[in-house]
Design goal:
eight-stranded antiparallel barrel; alpha+beta; single chain; binds ligand 76R; 7 helices
Length: 233
C-alpha cells in the first residue's frame, strides 16, 4: 500500500463512533489487534458493551489521523464485526465559549477518555431545529448571536450542576454527518445520564430547538472484558 499523507483536522481531533454487531465470522484476536494497533499516545479507543438490540459493541476512537480511524474501521470489519451504525464528528470548542480558560479548552479539544469511574455510557446525535413556520417551528440559526449565547449560558448553568457526576463530550459534525453534534455522556450510574438529559430537556435550547437521533447506551470496560461479556471468546 502506498504511503498516504495524514489527513487531520486543523484543530482538535477526529472522532469516530462505530456501533457493531457480532457476526458468525467474528474473531476475538482480530478485534483486539485492531483496537490495540490504533491506540497510541495521540489516538484513543474506548470500547463499550451495548445494551439492547441496536448493536453489541460500541467503539469510540479519537485522534488526529483520520486514516488511522478508517483503518480501525477496516480492521474491525475484517475481524467479522458488522458496522450497524456509526457517527463521524470532531472535537471543538463551542462558539459560545470562546473565553474558556485553556485548562477548560484543552479537555474539550483533546479529551482523555474514558473518564475514571464512569462506566455508564450513552451516545446520541443532536441538531438545533431550523423550521421556519408551522408545527414544531423554531429556527436556532435565525436567532441573533446574543440570544443564542444567552440560551447556551442557561444550558451551561444547568449542566454545571452535574459537574463531577457527568462527563460530556460534545463533538461537532455539521457537514460531515446527519446531525450537527454527537453527544457522548459518561456517568457513574445509569440514572446520572437520565437525570442530565431530562434536566436539559427543560432548557430552552433543548426544549424548543433540540432534535435528536437514535440513542445508544452501554457499559465501558477494558476491551477483553467487553468481548467476554458480549460472548466473543
Ligand atoms: O464547555 C463548557 O463547559 C461551557 C458550557 C457548555 C457549552 C458551550 C456546556 C456545558 N455545553 C455546551 C455546548 Mn453541553 N450538553 C449537551 C447535551 O440532551 C440534550 O438536551 C443536549 C445534549 C448535554 C446532556 C450536555 C451537557 N452542549 C453544548 C452544545 C454545542 C452548542 C453549540 O456550540 O452551538 C451542545 C449540542 C450541547 C449538548 N453541557 C455542559 C452539558 C453539561 C453536563 C455541561 C456542564 C459541563 C461542565 O461544567 O463540566
Amino acid at each position: 500500500m502506498s504511503q498516504q499523507p495524514e489527513v487531520t483536522t486543523s484543530v482538535g481531533w477526529g472522532v469516530l463512533h462505530l456501533f457493531c454487531k457480532l457476526t458468525p465470522a467474528a474473531d476475538r484476536a482480530g478485534v483486539l489487534a485492531a483496537i490495540e494497533s490504533t491506540a497510541d499516545d495521540d489516538h484513543h479507543v474506548l470500547v463499550v458493551a451495548v445494551l439492547g438490540h441496536k448493536a453489541d459493541v460500541g467503539v469510540m476512537a479519537l485522534g488526529p489521523d483520520l486514516w488511522r480511524l478508517r483503518v480501525l474501521q477496516t480492521r474491525l470489519q475484517q475481524a467479522g464485526l458488522d458496522v450497524a451504525d456509526s457517527y463521524v464528528s470532531m472535537t471543538e470548542v463551542s462558539e459560545y465559549a470562546p473565553d474558556l480558560p485553556p485548562e477548560m479548552k484543552t479537555p474539550r479539544l483533546y479529551p482523555q477518555l474514558p473518564p475514571e469511574g464512569k462506566q455508564a455510557f450513552c451516545f446520541y446525535p443532536m441538531s438545533k431545529r431550523r423550521n421556519a413556520a408551522g408545527p414544531g417551528s423554531g429556527n436556532w440559526f435565525t436567532l441573533p448571536y446574543d440570544e443564542r449565547r444567552e440560551l447556551m449560558y442557561e444550558h451551561g448553568t444547568s449542566g454545571r450542576k452535574f459537574r463531577g457526576r457527568i462527563t460530556q463530550v460534545v463533538t461537532g459534525s455539521t457537514g460531515v454527518d446527519d446531525f450537527e453534534w454527537g453527544v457522548t455522556l459518561f456517568g457513574e450510574h445509569l440514572d446520572d445520564l437520565k437525570d442530565v438529559v431530562y434536566t436539559m430537556r427543560f432548557d430552552e435550547a433543548s426544549a424548543v430547538y433540540g432534535e435528536f437521533g437514535a440513542f445508544y447506551t452501554g457499559l465501558v470496560a477494558d476491551t477483553s472484558t467487553v468481548l467476554d461479556r458480549i460472548g466473543l471468546r
